[in-house]
Amino acid sequence: MRKLRNLVLALCALLSGSTGLHAQELLCNISVNASQIQSDKQVFEDMQQTISRYMNFQQWGPDAFTIDERIKVNFQILVNQRPSPDRFSCTFNIQVYRPALNATYETIVLNISDKSCNFTYVPFQQMQFVENTYNDELTALLNFYAYLILGFDYGSFSPNGGNPYFQKAQEIVTLAASASNERGWRSSEDNRNRYWIIENLINSRYAGFHTVLYKYHRQGLDQMESNPNRGRRAIIDALREMQRVHRQNPILPLTRIFLDTKDEELIKVFTKAFANDKKEFVEIMQDLNPSNIAAYNKVME
Fold first, then answer.
1. How confident is the model at residue 20 (pLDDT cuts 50, 70, 90)?
2. Contact predicate 70/150, CB 8 Å
């Protein structure tokens, strides 16, 4: 699993002349935006530094990464409310990046927003990772998204490569559902929360999504530099598989995640495609996301 993933990254590192020193898996750019809160700003600076240390210096899995292999992540915490000095109601906005083979281009593998991130934070508190334990809400949220990030990254490099990390995220959901009073962890709340996202990812009924994740990136984008037409055909095959998954459940959270992540990129990819590929692309996207058909039709111009 790691060998397939790091083959691409090693080639990219060679091209850029990068170093091979060892590091943890994640390279998270953490930002805490508290512009809506008119209160002590020092706590938010401390929160940003503490979360950055936690995410970037924790070893999340068994694989040793070099500095150049780290997964680049933009992780914005938007503070919506501060009900009490130690209580925060936030939105997490997360974008995960992955290099394309033989290219300077980086694609977004995951683009996700969670508006139900509510937790207690005390300045200068020590955050500690303890596996198979619910410590507190903030570490549970960060652990969940760390494993989700790893799952999407690994899954883009090898077939079903992210499954061990999705299983880890599912374990966090199970623990939090019984230990936490906060929203996002239970099936009864809504159909697009953390519970349902991870349920979909480990549900064999939607196993085709993992095929989409791999085929789109490894057989599609990674081929675009050497053979763009072949790369586009692989992406169309991935879109056909996404269409089949979507038709199994039209309100599937994974469809929304895929579209939020790939919509803009897909339009760029097919703007220079052959006419028959453009037509096929628009037909598929009409089914997946009819509300955005005007944007997809621009590739026909």
1. low
2. no
Contact indicator for 193, 113 with CB cutoff of 8 Å: no
Q: What are phi and psi for residue 158, nearest 5 degrees?
A: -145, 150
Give the residue-averaged pLDDT of 198-208: 97
Taking the CB of residue 94, how many other CB atoms lie within 10 A of it?
18
Output the pLDDT for position 75. Answer: 98
What separation in angstroms does the CA of 114 have from each of 67, 149, 194, 270?
A: 28, 14, 8, 30
Confidence of residue 191 (pLDDT cuts 50, 70, 90): confident
Cα(77)–Cα(30) distance, integer angstroms: 8
- Which among 154, 136, 113, 134 has a CA at the least distance from the CA of 51? 136
Amino acid at 220: G
Nearest CA-CA partner of 80 in 127, 114, 129: 114
Average confidence (pLDDT) over 234-240: 98
Residue with tokens 């992955």: 98
Alpha-carbon distances, residue 252 vs 9, 157, 192, 197 (angstroms): 32, 23, 8, 9
CA distance 299 to 228: 16
Helix (H, G, I), strand (E, B) or coil at 193: coil
Alpha carbon distance 197, 192 (integer Å): 6
For 38-57, the pLDDT digits (tens) are: 878 899 999 999 999 999 99
For the record, the structure tokens of 214 come out as: 């791999």
pTM, rounded to two decimals: 0.93
Cα separation, 212 vs 110, whole angstroms: 13
Measure Cα distances from 160 to 5, 43, 167, 176, 217 in Å.
12, 40, 12, 25, 13
CA separation for the pair 286, 275 (Å, rounded): 17
